Amino acid sequence: MLKCAGAALLAIRLLVMPAQAADINVGILLSATGPAAAIGNAERNGTSFGATEIAGHKVNYLFLDEASDSTAAVAALRKLFQGSQIDILVGPTTTPGSFAVIDPAVEYRLPVITLAPVNALVAPVDARKRWIFKTTTNDDHEATPLFAHMKTNGVKTLALIGFGDSYGDAWSKVGADMSAANGIKLVADEKYARTDTTVSGQVLKIVAANPDAVLIAASGAPAALPLLQLREKGYEGKVYGTLGATFGDFRKLTGAQGDGIFVPLSPAVGAASLPDEHPAKQAALEFIRRYEAKFGPGSRNIFAGSAYDALLLIERAAPAALKAGEPGTAEFREGLRSAIEGLKGVAGSRGVYNYGANDHTGLDQSALTLGRLEKSEWVAVP
């Protein structure tokens, strides 16, 4: 009799004990190897600061390398979903990889926050792209402060030199369109490979064209090459760069010769020089403080900021998504998608995010200002 009563009491206790909350699984798919590894590894560093628990649910971050390869990106996404039942994906790093994962994401009804910059990944928002968001600005956002400065300062002729790949090609189009819109004549458009060790031939052509300004459409250390060789050839006109110049060893390689180059400046890099009323300044300073405490002084960069912000968005959206269903279910994934789409006024390292049913970019022109390199520091131009 006592044994039966004890068993009954245990059964009652088991019935009334709350079930353990299901874990939230976040897939992280980045380029740890391959041509985009420098960017992907910076992004992975940025994912070091995600919440470990949200609304009583443990959060797991599951990383796979997509090796800067579209086929590998699709295979890795399928592995993450089928093997670990991820609720959302952050990544891929590259534009081609991000386009490639759209189809399986739609198949799984899986929200994705890509870290690639191309607006076509998220616009127009349709039945497929409703699952895709991003935490990066667009090329036209970058170009706007640069060309506004050119126009104000009387630039009439411009030469472009950039990577001979999709990045450089995109800037060739932006450069041509923005030049035409601002009454500027594009007198040269030169290309070089990311692995080239000299661009002397291209620079000689540019110097011969004698433009008022040169725009370098490149990123990281390779962006330093045209600048150094332009200086070597005695070019004295204005020099502009893209957001990519604020990343990597550009400052280290150019030294004092880099001073004076104008770039679009993100709060993730230049928050300290922004006015106090800038809406993202405090959030960006917090990102910089945390990031540089872990990875060293001067290590902050836009790519880490993009990944950092992606996890911030998930942290903000997950509580609302949990009302739709438990992690691991289609209802929760749809809840996450809907909640991210509804986020407004979220200050991150790269700006203030305002998503909507027709806007999965989140950032607008206010996320970038004109910056300049002064004594090897990126500062906002008043």
UniProtKB/TrEMBL annotation:
Keywords recorded for this protein, A-Z: Amino-acid transport, Signal, Transport
Leader sequence segment: 1-21
UniProt-listed GO biological process terms: amino acid transport
Lineage of producing organism: Bacteria, Pseudomonadati, Pseudomonadota, Alphaproteobacteria, Hyphomicrobiales
Family annotation (InterPro entries): BCAA_transport, Leu-bd, Peripla_BP_I
SUPFAM superfamilies: Periplasmic binding protein-like I
Family indicated by similarity: Belongs to the leucine-binding protein family.
Domain Leucine-binding protein: 24-364
Source organism of the structure: Bradyrhizobium nitroreducens
Record-linked PANTHER family: BLR7848 PROTEIN, LEUCINE-SPECIFIC-BINDING PROTEIN
A Pfam family reported for this protein in Swiss-Prot or TrEMBL: Peripla_BP_6
Protein name: Branched-chain amino acid ABC transporter substrate-binding protein
